[in-house]
Amino acid sequence: MQEFDVAIIGGGPIGIACGLEAKKQGLSYIIIEKGPIVNSLFNYPVNMQFFSSSEKLEIDEIPFISKEAKPKRSEALEYYRRIVTSNQLNIHLFETVLNVEKKGDFFFVESNKDRYRAKNVVVATGFYDLPNKMNVPGEDSPKVSHYYNDPHFYAGQKVAVIGASNSAIDAALECWRKGAQVTLIIRGPEVGQRVKYWVRPDIINRIEEGSIKAYYHATVKEITPNDIIINTPDRDVSLDNDFVLALTGYMPNFEFLEKLGIALSEDEKRLPTYDPETMETNIPGLFLAGVICGGMETHKWFIENSRIHAPIIMQGILQKRK
């Protein structure tokens, strides 16, 4: 069984940053990622543009050069992939962690491919894997997706987009521009205030001119093979429908965190317990890094404000060794 100073679960930007910092500090490490390099970013829409500028997405002070100030998904994939390959990081891809158990001074990490022993574990798994479900009839039908990739697929189709955040608004605009008949279903009174500032006026103008129909204070009641039924303040409305993009947000894998023994707050935020000075959880030697730290408040942590977690964690591990 291989032994490491640090086992890092998650090969996204922050997991990679932790690997870089471990290598820099002379710590033996392994990064275990269940998909490709930066799996979450790989599953972003093909035309996605970041809200942050490229320098704010940099890790370990490695320059990120992009054509525009705010890089595209393809540029980010190239940037992080090159960091992994040029630094020859010890990353195991397409390997899923099944269980982590602490026995004495060591953590035993079991994956679908191997078992490892580590003195410390860093959880940097993000939040993009589990969609927030609406829990309505028909949600599991083939025409419903909680992820959006390419607008070409929806050309000439009647598409209902559920949500008011960046992902939903981007999908609505892109699908409409490729020839889809788009309807937005928004639970609140308006398009989300955190929508990218150069995109929000665009969607508002499309709604006001009637190109995209929007229902506010609306929720989905049922999805049928040919329709989507929504509840509005006035009445239930049945819309002809071919596809539903339920872009209602995502959540961390709380079941996995609880299985590890990490204490979560009992309110709806489900905030994990950790020391912000060291990022160590209530389990000694078990650390959190990245957006996973925010629980359900997935808008609180980003690459730009959580990349500092890597040096904090590795310095903490080094201090414990003295």
Explained architecture:
- Strands 1, 2, 3, 4, 5, 6 and 17 form a 7-stranded mixed beta sheet that branches. Strands 8-15-9-10-11 form a 5-stranded parallel beta sheet, covered by helices on one side.
- The model has no long low-confidence stretch (mean pLDDT 94).
- The protein is of the alpha/beta class.
- It contains 8 helices and 17 strands.
- It has 2 domains: 2-130 and 250-321, FAD/NAD(P)-binding domain (3-Layer(bba) Sandwich), CATH 3.50.50; 133-246, FAD/NAD(P)-binding domain (3-Layer(bba) Sandwich).
- The longest helix has 14 residues, at 73-86.
- Helix 1 (13-24) packs parallel to helix 8 (309-321).
Could you provide a short overview of the structure?
The chain has helices at 13-24, 39-42, 73-86, 166-177, 200-208, 254-260, 303-306, 309-321; strands spanning 2-9, 29-32, 91-92, 97-103, 106-111, 115-123, 130-131, 144-145, 158-162, 181-185, 213-215, 219-223, 227-231, 236-240, 243-246, 250-251, 286-288.
Key features of this structure:
single chain; 322 residues; alpha/beta; FAD/NAD(P)-binding domain; 2 domains; 7-stranded mixed sheet; 5-stranded parallel sheet
